[in-house]
Amino acid sequence: MLARLPGARAERDHAEPTKETANAGAGCDHHRGQPGDRAGECHSPCQGLCAIVLAARDRRNLNETAAAVREAGAEPLVIDLDLSQVAAARKVVDETMGRFGRIDALLNIAGAVPQVDVLEMTDAQWDLGMNLKLHGARRLTVAAWPALKAAKGAVVFMSGNSALFPKASYAAVGTINAAIVALAKAFSDRGISDGVQVNSVLPGPVMTGRRRSYLAHWADIHHMTAKEATETFPKEAGIARYGEPEEIAELMGFLVSPGARWMTGAMMRMDGGEVKSV
């Protein structure tokens, strides 16, 4: 969560957290000084002198992200908890409001879904994937909604381009990503009357730790080494290269910036052209 501190001077040459560390966070709240203000300087999740609230289970990733936030000139607030738990959303919102007094933007980017074949995945694995990435984001958005409404804020949901082409070998990934897109659309419908803008982002193959884990799985399926899989996958996917985490961060930053204020209910796909359909 990001917060624009009163009287802070924005600077543009800030380091960005990688998606791998940013995924440790549940979202971003921008505290922009005056009620209703939008901080024009904060064009990416860590640009400008903001306060950023990070919530997740992995303390190591949280600390790494907090260090990147400090390096970027912002003030981090770390909340170490499991967002799949029902009470977690209220705790994040209460601590954020207690510290900064408002919530201007929320980026729901926490969650990993098991990559298991559709005929082999258990109910427990389905529940595990949905409880964090789908229900964790839903609960956090609901809990933050009154503050977002008061601030005329913004919400971004992280989905994935597998929502557009689900595969049997990792059925839950595409299914839950599609559900997140639909959920964001539902929130955006309510947001029109409440003054809250809501969009979803669908990244393609971005090179993170999670992508390396997927490539190891993909290598097994295709009977090759992880190195061979890493080199072969872009050609098979019809893309020139893997995406960089910072590219996704820039897109999400734009979606909570003044330049995107009229954009709501949009499904923003950034995948290097992997999805070929119109």
Strand order of the largest sheet: 4-5-6-7
What is the number of helices? 8
Round the Cα radius of gyration to an integer and report it: 18 Å
Approximate shape: globular
Q: What is the typical, i.e. mean, pLDDT? A: 84
Total E-strand runs: 7
Strand % is 5-15%
Low-confidence stretches: 7-44
- Report the sheet with the most strands, covering strand number, pairing sense and barrel closure: 4 strands, parallel
SSE-based structural type:
alpha/beta
How much helical structure, as a percent, in the residues?
A: 40-55%
Please give the alpha-carbon distance between the first and last residues: 34 Å
- Give the H and E element order: EHEHEHEHEHEHHHE
What's the SSE blueprint?
Layout (H helix, E strand, L loop, with lengths): L1 E3 L14 H4 L27 E7 L2 H13 L3 E6 L7 H13 L4 E4 L14 H29 L2 E5 L12 H24 L2 E7 L5 H13 L4 H12 L7 H11 L11 E4 L8
Parallel strand pairs: 2-3, 4-5, 5-6, 6-7
Antiparallel strand pairs: 1-2
Helix pairs in contact: 3-4, 4-5, 6-7
Overview of the structural elements:
Helices cover 43% and strands 13% of the residues. The protein is α/β, with parallel strands linked by helices and 278 residues long. The chain has a four-stranded parallel sheet with strand order 4-5-6-7, sandwiched between helices. It has a three-stranded mixed sheet with strand order 1-2-3, with helices on both faces. Helix 3 packs parallel to helix 4, helix 4 runs parallel beside helix 5 and helix 6 packs across helix 7. The longest helix is centred in the middle third of the chain and has 29 residues.
